[in-house]
Each structure stands twice: as C-alpha cells, then as structure tokens.
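Below is how a single chain appears once it has passed through the pipeline. First comes the sequence as given, then the structure the pipeline wrote out for it. We keep one example in the README because the format questions we get most often are answered faster by looking than by reading.
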Amino acid sequence: MIRKLGQPQIIGEIAIGVLVGPSVLGAYLLRSYNITLFDPSLTKSFASLGAIFLLFLVGLESDFRVMYTRKNFAVALGGVLLPFVIGAPLAYYMLPPAAIGPQGTPFTMAVFVGAAMVATSTAIAAAILLELGLMKDRVAQTIIGAAVIDDILGLLTLSIVVGLSRSGGIDIWANIWAIAILLITALVFIGVAIYVGVHFFSKIVVRLQAAGNRMGMKHSGFSIAIAITFLYAFISEVIGLSAIVGAFLAGTMFASTPLRKDLGEGATYLAAIFTPIFFISLGVLVDLGSVSSEFYLFSLILVAMAIVTKVVGCSIPARLTGLRTREALAVGLGMTPRGEVGLIVALTALTAEVIGPSLFSVIVLVSVAVSVLPSPFLKRALRRVVAQRARDRAEAPESQANSP
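Resulting structure:
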C-alpha cells in the first residue's frame, strides 16, 4: 500500500510499529489484559543487526572515488551545517526539561536533535527521478552523490555527539578540547579503517572467495566480509563511537571490488530480515500518548526548519557550483527527506537516555513528515527543469537560423 502511494517502504514499517506499539494496540493490550507484545532486549538485539546490515549496504554503494566531487561535497556540506546550526539551538531554547533523558543535559539533548536533522534519504527522490527518466541527469547525479557524502558527514557528526554524551556532555565552551579529541579520534578511525580495509582486508576477502570457489565453498568471501563488518562495528563501540559507523566503513572497503555485487546480494537477504525489524522497532518506541501539548509548537517549527534548511543549504551551493536556478531548487528538494541515519541518531540518543521518549517520538514523526511533504514539490520542480530544457532545445535552432 505504501509503495502504491509512492512513498518509501520504511514509512510503512514505522507505521506498523506505531500501530502495534504503545500508541495503539500495545496500549490497549497492556491496559485491558496486562500483556506486552515485545521483549525490549530481544527487539533491541535484532534491531541492532538490522541497522548494521543496512549501513553495510549503504557503504557498498559509497565508493569515494566515484561519489566525491567538489559540487557534491559543497551541496552535502551546506545540507549538513545549516540544519545542525539552526536545529540544535532551536531545541536548546524551545524544548522543556521533559525532553531531556536521565543521562542527558540540555546541551547533549540539543546536539542530538541537530544531528538527527542532517542526514538525507534518497529513496523518494530516486523513485521520482526514475519515474521521470532522469536518473542519468546531472540533477540526479548531484542528489545521489551529495546524499552519500551527506550520510558520511552525518555519521561523523553522530560519532562526535555519541562521544560527547558518554564523556558527560558539559558546556561546549568548557569542553572545546574534548570536542577536538573526539573529532580527531573519529577522523583517525575512519582514515585508518578505510586504508586498512581497501589495501588489506578487501584483498584477503577477494582471494578467499576465489579459493573458496575452487573448493566448492561459494560463500566463503561473504562470510569473512560479514565477520569483518562485525569487527569494525565492535571496534567503533570500544573506542566510543557508534557500531553503525564501523558497519558503514566495512561496506565502503568492498565498494570498488569485484565482489561488490555478490556481497550486496547476500547482505540484502540479511537486511530483508533484520532491517524491517529495526524500523518497526522505531515505531514501537513511539508513544503518541506521551507527547504533551508543550511539544506541539516545537514539532511544527521543526518540520518547517527541517525542510527550509535543507532546501536553502543545498540549493545555494548547487547554484554556485554551476547548476541553473530550477536545477538547484530541485537538488534542494531532493535532499530534504531525512534518512535512516537520522532515525538511528534518534534511537542512539534514546538508548543512551540523553533524550526522553516524548522527544524521540517527535523526531521520528518529523522525519516521516519531511520525507513525505516535499515529494509533490520535487516532482513539480523536476518537470519544470525538463520543460525548461525542452524550450532551450526548441529555441536553439531558431537562434542559429536567425544568426548571420
């Protein structure tokens, strides 16, 4: 049904979680029969696996040598900085004390909200681009490439924020050195993990796969690749980052290898089982009954801020790097839907008890809203781009004929 409405599958999965969670069915069963549908610890374990496999697949599609361009980086950077710089202070000054979790402070709560607003999902934009036959267009290339870099920057932001929350998250001005250390740690880990992965682990996996094929062991390379993914996820957790950062980096090391397609196919089967559990678990954690009236105004402002900051933050760099005005606007609208990384940021904050259940519910609902609302405007903007190009092609022969 969600697919027929032209929306990404994750929205339907989150909606299922909301329906069976404490907002609807779960509330009725608990109130009437004292029954709880889900075991929190078991659900958390399966959801964590889903997040790891999802980010591994994202990493497989994120070959740095192909995706990195100045234009894409500029668009992604604008789309990360503006939502964060505006979103974090907005949360700091507007949200009531009830938004802060037992282990959080106003500062760490605010930076988690800002971090949740930076990551982009290309699912809706890609569907519309496919429908209009524009996937090979420079607008599509900019959106997809910038979204990949956007996710990388979002994961880096998550790493810093997680480290801050674990170190106490005291006032930013009193802890500028701690923030610098966290940034350096994240950058060093990302750099070392990519270098070792590309020059060492990826070559080992390719050789093991070839040796396995000769001995009739067709999935030996895939098994080792998944083991390395869990190793990277474990190291990420040990040094104070998030496990999904390691999973993403593990995927990138295989993005340029001959095994990328095979690894992606195998990981897709695992993700098909565990990743829906992750998104359903997000919906299960949403408790609409806990969202008091003091969050309503903030929710509306956050939706508007999330849309406007992405459109402005991405379209201006796109225009300055060579795209026409309508093309740049289409890029901004295509970067507006919030992605899986943003939802993982929200779940990380809730699990760390930095934010409360009410704020988590607000962030998930806002993420869904900003993924749905811009869709018709993106389609209209892309159609205007196509119409403008058709007019330009029609006018070109006429101007040539009139030239002396």
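The CA atoms of residues 314 and 346 lie 23 Å apart.

See the next section for the split statistics.
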